[in-house]
Amino acid sequence: MRRNQSGATVVVVISVIATLAIFIGGALDYTFTVGRNVERSNKNAQCTAIANGCIQKEFMYWREICRTQPSHNPALGVATNTFSSVPLPTQADFPNVTGFTATTGSSASYTVSNYGVTSLTPQLQPVAGTTIPPAGIGQTATTETFFYRASATVTLPDRSAPVNFNAYQIFEQQYQNPWDWAIFFNDPLEIQPGANFTIDGWVQTNSSLYTAMSDLTFGNKVTYGTNWYIGYMPGDGDHSGDTPAAPSWPANLPPVQGTPGQPFGLNPTDVFNTTNPNATGYQELIQPPNPASSDPLATQRYFNQAGLKIILSSNSSSITATLYDNSTAATTTSLGTSIGTLTYTAATRYTGAKTTAVVTGSSTLQKSLANTFESALSLNQSIQDDRETETIPITELNIGTISSAISANPGNFNGFNQVVYIDDTISTASAERAVELTNGTVLPSGGLTIACANPVYIQGDYNTGTNPPSDSGNTTEPTASGYTRQPSSVIADAVDILSNSWSNSLNSSGVIAESTNSLSGRVATSTTVNAAIMAGNVPTGTQGSNYSGGAENFPRFLEDWSNATLTYYGSMVELFASQQATHPWPNTGNVYNPPTRAWYYDTNFQIHPPPGSIMIVSYLKGQWYQL
Question: What's the CA gap between 357 and 352, in Å, rounded?
Answer without folding.
Answer: 16
